[in-house]
Specification:
GO terms for molecular function: DNA binding; transposase activity. This protein has 443 residues and is α+β, with helices and mostly antiparallel strands. It is built from 16 helices and 11 strands. Helix 1 (2-15) crosses helix 16 (397-411) and helix 15 runs antiparallel to helix 16.
Length: 443
């Protein structure tokens, strides 16, 4: 618990620091005058976002801090002063503290990082359409304004380490390359062993080579018809083979220098593992993990961890309301998306600590029919968004600590539970999807 509390207090202090203000200015004269919309409030309004109208977001925020609300026009104008990348900077500050602690979960001394992409829709607006484009139907008509985004997610610790977003037509492969470049520049991950996991949309000769040159470990799922010629010479379901590099496999690469460089290599020696699923279907993985340290069962387990990134996208869209943007400019969209990545990681840190407390309580009970208890993220999010801003306004560190402890203790009492013993199957019933109690929002 103390590690999380120290990180939260450090983050609150950093938001108020001159360093953060300097980083967060779009220009030198920004945030130099006394105003209700100073730098600190601008940051916290974004973190506290509920997916409501700007008027209600501002009303709710300023009501919490005991000040008169300002107009949505003033808010829109102030957004032009705020550098969206300041939220990446704040996120890195938080994650530096976490990955420098002894709380980090690893698999055989490796961080397990997953990369994946998602389409994300925005409100229809002509300006947003001109900036980002969107989804077009067979009649060449725009059906919705949308963007493409990719993230790097820590599968065991639950943090989103990096996000990149761009126009809808931007390929996910291009965005994931930006993510990888960003990751290599993070000081807190430089000396850490990592395994990158990606799905079928990302494998390519150039990506394999990029990771090999960076001395990074990886697992990709590949299609059954990928590298057919190489698979035919496999004698077992798990072995290293040479992946031939030829012009056909590099046709999509526009960079001539990269093409020539890869052709000179002629081949890459990689491991292909065929895994049989419970359904009888076969799944093919390609990696550079050595067989002595990582068995085929390890690879299967590691690839299954990738599911966490899918859950994170669902939370961002449906709980954090990341798509309900507060402005119709490129800067506004980036501010909203990047601020909610920071909000997600704050919630995850507090939730992880609450889960540890809950686990300890569960272990200490002598229930003959034990139940698996998990923190309810929806309720946890509602509580955190309700209380966190008030805690940031406290001036005494000891009082902040006390309130954070109370907050974590409260979250630990909000959980869902499932029995660890199997119960007889119940017949399926058709339920109305409207107004379902398990879909209610917590704020």
């Amino acid at each position: 618990m103390h590690g999380t509390i120290r990180r939260m207090i450090s983050l609150f202090a950093y938001i108020k620091s001159k360093e953060a203000v300097e980083y967060g200015r779009m220009y030198k004269s920004a945030f130099t005058r006394e105003s209700p919309l100073n730098f600190e409030n601008s940051i916290l309004i974004h973190i506290n976002k509920h997916g409501l109208t700007n008027h209600m977001e501002l009303r709710n925020y300023f009501k919490k801090i005991g000040k008169i609300s300002i107009s949505k026009q003033a808010f829109s104008k102030s957004k032009e002063k705020l550098n969206p990348n300041v939220f990446k900077n704040l996120n890195n500050h938080l994650l530096t503290k976490f990955y420098g602690s002894n709380e980090v979960k690893k698999f055989k001394n490796h961080l397990i990082l997953s990369g994946d992409g998602s389409k994300s829709t925005l409100p229809y607006n002509k300006t947003l359409e001109n900036i980002f484009g969107g989804i077009i139907n067979k009649f060449q008509e725009l059906t919705s304004v949308a963007i493409n985004l990719t993230t790097i997610y820590d599968c065991l610790n639950g943090f989103i380490i990096d996000l990149e977003l761009d126009k809808y037509k931007t390929s996910e492969k291009e965005l994931i390359n930006r993510n990888m470049d960003n990751i290599t520049k993070l000081d807190y991950l430089k000396d850490t062993k990592k395994i990158f996991i990606c799905d079928r949309g990302f494998p390519s000769i150039e990506f394999f080579n990029y990771l090999l040159e960076k001395n990074e470990k990886f697992i990709f799922r590949i299609r059954k018809n990928s590298y057919k010629a190489e698979k035919t010479i496999m004698k077992t379901n798990d072995e290293f083979i040479d992946i031939n590099i030829n012009k056909t496999r590099l046709n999509h690469i526009k960079n001539k220098e990269l093409k020539e460089k890869l052709l000179k290599k002629e081949k890459l020696n990689l491991r292909i593992t065929k895994i049989t699923l419970p359904t009888g279907e076969e799944e093919h993985l390609i990696s550079n993990l050595n067989k002595k340290t990582f068995t085929s069962n390890d690879l299967k387990e590691l690839y299954n961890l990738k599911w966490g990134i899918e859950v994170s996208y669902d939370s961002l869209k449906n709980l954090f309301a990341i798509e309900n943007v507060s402005g119709y400019s490129e800067i506004a969209v980036k501010q909203d998306y990047l601020s909610q990545i920071l909000a997600y990681n704050i919630v995850n840190d507090l939730e992880n600590t609450a889960q540890k407390i809950l686990n300890q309580k569960t272990q200490n009970t002598k229930d003959p029919k034990p139940k698996k208890k998990k923190i309810n993220k929806n309720i946890a999010l509602g509580i955190i968004k309700e209380e966190l801003i008030k805690i940031t306004r406290l001036t005494e560190e000891n009082t902040q600590k006390e309130k954070l402890i109370e907050l974590i203790q409260e979250i630990s009492k909000t959980y869902t539970q499932t029995s660890t013993t199997k119960s007889p199957r119940k017949p399926k019933r058709a339920y109305s999807t409207k107004n379902r109690t398990n879909n209610r929002k917590s704020f």
